[in-house]
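Model the whole thing, not chain by chain.
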Amino acid sequence: MNVHIKSPGAATTRYIARRHGMLIDGKWRQAANGAVSQIMDPGLGKVIADVPCGTGADVDLAVAAARRAFEDGPWRMMKPNERSKLIWRLADLIEHHADTIAELESINNGMPVAVAKAGHVGPSVDLIRYTAGWPTKLTGETIPVSSPGEWHAYTLREPVGVVGQIVPWNGPLMMAAWKIAPALAAGCTIVLKPAEQTPLTALYLAELALEAGFPKGVFNVVLGGAEVGAAMASHPDIDKIAFTGSTRTGRSIATAAAATNLKRVSLELGGKSPVIVFPDADLSLAIPGVASGIFSNAGQICTAGSRVYAHESVFDRLVDGVASAAQSLKVGYGLAEGSQMGPLISSTQLERVSSMTAQGVREGASVVTGGEAMESDGYFYKPTILAGLNPQMSVVREEIFGPVLSVLRYTDDDLDGIARQANDSPYGLAASIFTQNLQVAHKMAARLRAGTIGINRHFVGDSAMPFGGFRQSGWGRERGREVFDSYLETKAIASPL
Ligand code: ADP
């Protein structure tokens, strides 16, 4: 394992060591009950900071601040082009501090620092800039009504109100950016809760939002775990919850939202995304595509390509190629030179990945490579490939959220039959297709039940492309134009003339 550790920059070290607070109504505060929780570096398995650990009382304060900021209108009533400028300024500030933010993300989440910078900070800046252009374009319509007489009928699109945003630990900055940028563009006010494991970049983002000049109360950050998230989901004065995380937690958020005030809910949940490799696939694309589809972020990505269906004629060559890619991956500490894959987020997650893999082996899976944790104080797991599978096995059906790939062989040449296997899942987040035949690619894309489909590439993403899941992978879409559907209410107005 790669242990040659480069020291973080002085600004990063200073930031981690300072006293952290929650941002409520433009001020940094400790938890109302004074509680703190410890933040870990998962690559070293050691505590690096204390942060406040909130409760429902802190959520109440943050929601009250967001409500005042919404109703009093400094944000909602601000001219759209002025809102754009502030959002763009936030993107500039993130870009200016990209090195520090990337180091913080790497230290707190474990991802290699180069990945944090190019794959998380950069795309967050891009997404925020893309979204900054939208406030001036969120328009209603005029409607040609058919009722008797002459009418003037039109719609207005208005911000939904105070939004609670709950994000996970696997892409802490990027998930926060995806949430806050469209809510701000729509004129909503925000209470953001980062995951309890990874609050540092969200706090840094909040500090930059203060510097950018957002009015107080527009963007609040509360810290804590399930208790704080649950207090948000059941809060009577939050108008909408946007959540990214597990399907289990998404279900409980939807239930709590329904039981209190029927707040709007958008959910971006789990996946078990299939990768289909056809006999004519260009293996020089398919092998690295499959490998990066599962080993990026140590498999802790909701769209990870964790189930491969490879035609029997290419199966052995594909599996050999992905296995050698797995074995040559530089697994190591995020700040170590050249690391390509970091640790899992926590000892809990390491145990979960280990036990799910062991369960697969008990059910009959064979380990092609990996299949165990690495010797380390951090939470490293070897890039793993499991074969000898059947569609009923738990490692084929359940999301593992680790660097564990399940490979299945198919013999069928019928596209409907292949699609049936790929679609045999409660999830529907992403899928990819490797073939050189355009007809096969697009016919297959039409048959797959998933929100994002890549052709000859597993991860496809762009700030302008909508993202979200079919079935139990979620409700609604983020990014692109469609994200605004979940942050705006439509008001229909008509007058007989
Ligand atoms: P994981 O189990 O992998 O940590 P979760 O879906 O539980 O994933 O966590 C994602 C986010 O949801 C985190 O910010 C977490 O604190 C929050 N969360 C966890 N449980 C609840 C809950 N019951 N209600 C609301 N938010 C929750």
